[in-house]
Amino acid sequence: MKYVVMLCDGMADLPIPELGGKTPMEAANKPNMDKMAAVGEVGLVKTVDDGMKPGSDVANLSVLGYDPVKYYSGRSPLEAVSIGVDMKESDVSFRCNLVTLSDEPDYRDKTMVDYCSDDISTAEAAKLIETLAEHFNSEEFQLYSGVSYRHCLIWNGGTTDVGTLTPPHDITGKPIKNYLSDSPNAAKLLDMMIKSYDILKDHPVNLARIKAGKRPANSMWLWGEGVKKPLSSFKDKYGLKGSMISAVDLLKGIGHLSGMKVIEVEGATGYIDTNFEGKAQACINELKNGQDFVYIHVEAPDECGHRHEMENKVRSIELIDEKILGPVMKALDEMGDYKILVCPDHPTPISLMTHTNKPVPYLIYHKQEQKQGVDCLCEKAAEKTGIFITKGCTLMDRFIKG
């Protein structure tokens, strides 16, 4: 038996007037998902417990069968592992976004223009992080370069008691003064953020970006604090040899910590320009080479939700269906019996441009076990089935064990 999870980050949404009251999942032309939904199990699953932040960290741990209440300590440690940081027990890590802020003289008066600086390239970002490291690295703090706008700060002997550090994608277009922690423990972090603006605003990389009509990455933004927590082995937990395919450090970190084989796909970006075909082929190769389980994570629907890109969100779902699920299903048909789980990790509604903790639709398809399903894999159809999994971390047991 082969198992594939198609995790469509942030795919779930709310009805959109411009789509005739449909959600992107309803509006998308996705024949492979809908074909499986017609003979599979479709329902709703609560991937984020009430009281927990609805991030991809919590939600993907949940989908993979790890109870976030037990295993989650913050987003950044998961990413730090992927970057290659050997965190000590006394270390606290933070996600360091390279963001675009407006140009008011006082830092507190600035507005969050863009949480990802026009999807700054990894090569450009590395130069900016290197410059910041020259100013801030010490025995206490160290900066590490990641992918695109996503980077990491380690605070040796630090604390997670730093007040509220808001994810920048939650405050696009909003003044930042209401989202800067006033905790005394966060004073050093805020000082670095303020100084980073003066360091980066006239950096050659940013001057070149402005000349090219792109937004500058003119500030660091710290959030997602946490300490390292080990995960139990996925193979020990489920008896399956697993592989993780993703463009983002968060999922790669989860893969590393759970003992999965983490696959790098050339051209995988985390946005709608990602290498969909490459991810499909990587999955097929892993299955043919003896892996039992492959988790394919695609960030594109989530990024489109954060950016209020309705048409791109619909198109990203269609591309997942056409360029990943289609080829993977064709290959699986030649390998014998298999199961596929398709679901978002959380909703990222276009109208809100951020995550929510509402239940999401899921689909479990088993080649050898045809059921009476629904016409469309979408939020409304999933709700009508009456199937509701209240604890997201039990979904993987349901998928693998039945």
Structural description of this entry:
It is a single chain. This protein is an alpha/beta fold and 402 residues long. The protein has two domains: 2-72 and 231-401, 3-Layer(aba) Sandwich (Alkaline Phosphatase, subunit A), CATH 3.40.720.10; 82-226, no CATH class. It contains 15 helices and 13 strands. Helix 11 runs parallel beside helix 13. The protein is globular and about 60 Å long. The model has no long low-confidence stretch (mean pLDDT 96).
In sequence order, what are the helices and strands, one letter per element?
Answer: EHHEHHHEEHEEHHEHEHEHEHHEEHEH
Percentage of β-strand residues: 15-25%
So, CATH architecture of the largest domain? 3-Layer(aba) Sandwich
Arithmetic mean of pLDDT = 96
Q: Span between N and C termini?
A: 13 Å
The class by helix and strand makeup works out as alpha/beta
For the largest beta sheet, what order do the strands appear in spatially? 9-8-10-1-11-12-2-13
Radius of gyration from the alpha-carbon trace, in angstroms: 21 Å
Which shape, going by the Cα principal axes? globular
Contiguous helical run count: 15
Helical content band: 25-40%
Annotated CATH homologous superfamily of the largest domain: Alkaline Phosphatase, subunit A
CATH topology of the largest domain: Alkaline Phosphatase, subunit A
> How would you characterize the largest beta sheet?
8 strands, mixed
The CATH class of the largest domain is Alpha Beta
- Domains (count): 2
Number of strands: 13
In the predicted model, the low-confidence regions spanning at least 5 consecutive residues are none
